[in-house]
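hey
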C-alpha cells in the first residue's frame, strides 16, 4: 500500500498549479498594496499642505466704552491684539514618499 501511495502521481500537477497561481496572486497583491500606500500617502500629504496653508493671523481693534450719564469718563476699555502667523518649517513640503522623478523632494 505504501508503495502504491508513493508511486501515485495524481494531483501533483494540480498542487503545482495552485502554488504557481498563489505566488502570482501574492506578488500582484504586494504591488497593488504598494500603489495603494503611495496614493494614501500622497493624499495625506495634500491634506497636510492644506492645513499648513491655513493662515491663523488675526487682529482685534481697541474697544472703548464711555459713560453715558455726565462726564467724559471711560467706563471700560480693552486694547487691541494681534497675532501674525508665520510659516512653519514643515509647511507645504513635497510628497514624503513615492516621488517618481517629478522633481519632488524625498524625506
Amino acid at each position: 500500500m505504501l508503495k502504491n501511495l508513493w508511486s501515485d502521481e495524481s494531483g501533483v500537477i494540480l498542487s503545482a498549479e495552485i502554488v504557481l497561481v498563489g505566488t502570482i496572486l501574492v506578488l500582484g497583491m504586494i504591488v497593488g498594496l504598494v500603489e495603494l500606500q503611495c496614493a494614501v500617502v500622497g493624499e495625506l500629504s495634500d491634506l497636510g499642505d492644506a492645513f499648513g496653508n491655513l493662515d491663523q493671523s488675526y487682529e482685534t481693534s481697541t474697544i472703548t466704552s464711555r459713560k453715558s450719564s455726565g462726564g467724559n469718563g471711560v467706563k471700560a476699555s480693552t486694547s487691541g491684539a494681534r497675532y501674525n502667523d508665520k510659516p512653519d518649517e514643515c509647511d507645504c513640503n513635497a510628497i514624503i514618499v513615492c516621488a517618481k522623478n517629478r522633481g519632488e523632494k524625498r524625506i
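The helical segments are 2-7, 12-52. The first strand starts at residue 58 and ends at 60.
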